[in-house]
Amino acid sequence: MWIVDKNVDKNKDYPQIKKAAQLLHDGHTIAFPTETVYGLGADATSDQAVSGIFKAKGRPSDNPLIVHIYSTNQLSELVQYVDNTSQALIEQFWPGPLTLIFTKKQGVFSDKVTAGLDTVGIRMPDHPVALALMEACQKPIAAPSANRSGKPSPTSAAHVYYDLNGRIAGIVDGGETGVGVESTVLDCTVTPPMILRPGGISYEQLTDCIGPVDVDPSLEEHAGQPRSPGMKYTHYAPVAPLYVTKGSDLWLQETIVAFQQDGKKVGLLAPVETISHMQADFLVACGREDDLSTTAHSLYESIRAFDNEAVDIILAQSVEMRGIGVAIMNRLVKAAGHKWLIENNDKTSF
Ligand code: TXA
Ligand code: MG
């Protein structure tokens, strides 16, 4: 583990960054901070290096990785063309939490990165340490979030250490990440562009910049509504079962008491405004309702906090579906495996 000040000075040499860049260059996997979450990087041009990422994370090989760059000059080596819409987005939001999907150039980086697709996701992270590391390495860096597959994404080096210690060559510790949820993934190969994953750049920010934007219909269907039965896969999940709740504070408190009377230890994750007047066995205040960027910032840390407590069930209060709230709800619903508890609706959606 190498500790680096978040505000690295571009004009100085950092032995820690040099060492990490050399290891990356030599085909090893290194975790590093970005403004969203920690990434697990490897040389995107090497099959063997990219395989190391999938192995360390236990990630299914059909899930493509994002290629990270430090300069827009690298784009033309990686993608076939950059259309005007993508160009406008790059000018407005890079470096930043927006991944753009382009038609890839064949044969320049490992096919394992894109899991057999003809497209590639590219992003330039807004983090001085990530940018300095990539510049020192001089390679495009494939990097998913640096968690074990299925776990919440890491927002500190300690989270990475907990999940991946012994499985990777090192961690560059640049402190806590900022945004806290991953980048927005936007497919720019279709017209209008389509959001495939909500994230750090909101729908509203995108439409303000380029006009109409579509949203992958499967996201719309899942996000604000209870899911139909049988939705199997869980992501970002804590150990105890998690339910997303929607209802008044009075109903929420009654629901907690009902579980407790059933012999269950109940954890509650909610904005501080709610937590301040609730009772449960373990309370986690996650940001403020009046500024959802604070909720996004501490979301994964908050979900992870329950793993150290002997709770039987976790209730997580839903937030408003606007701005970054859309990304927060997407992650919460996935962490819950689409299980909801809704006031005046006695069914849960298993
Ligand atoms: O903020 C982030 O994006 C973080 C940091 C480390 O940069 N990275 C990240 O990577 O979240 P990962 O691998 O956990 O998520 C990448 C997402 C996945 O949902 C993947 O399916 C999608 O991007 N993706 C990557 N390439 C794609 C492509 N060519 N077409 C469609 N989706 C793609
Ligand atoms: Mg991930």
Quick rundown:
Keywords: ATP-binding, Cytoplasm, Nucleotide-binding, Nucleotidyltransferase, Transferase, tRNA processing. 32% of the residues lie in helices and 18% in strands.
Helix content: 25-40%
Distance between the termini: 41 Å
What hetero molecules are bound to the protein chains? threonylcarbamoyladenylate, magnesium ion
Q: How many individual helices?
A: 12
Stretches with pLDDT under 50, minimum 5 residues: 222-232
| Beta fraction | 15-25%
Along the chain, the helix and strand elements come as EHEEHEHHEEHEHEEEHEHEHEHEHEHE
- Widest sheet, order of strands: 1-8-2-3-7-4-6-5-9-10-11
Structural class, from secondary structure content? alpha/beta
Can you give the mean pLDDT?
A: 92
Largest sheet, described in full?
A: 11 strands, mixed
What is the tally of beta strands?
Answer: 16
Question: How big is the Rg?
Answer: 20 Å
What shape does the CA trace take? globular
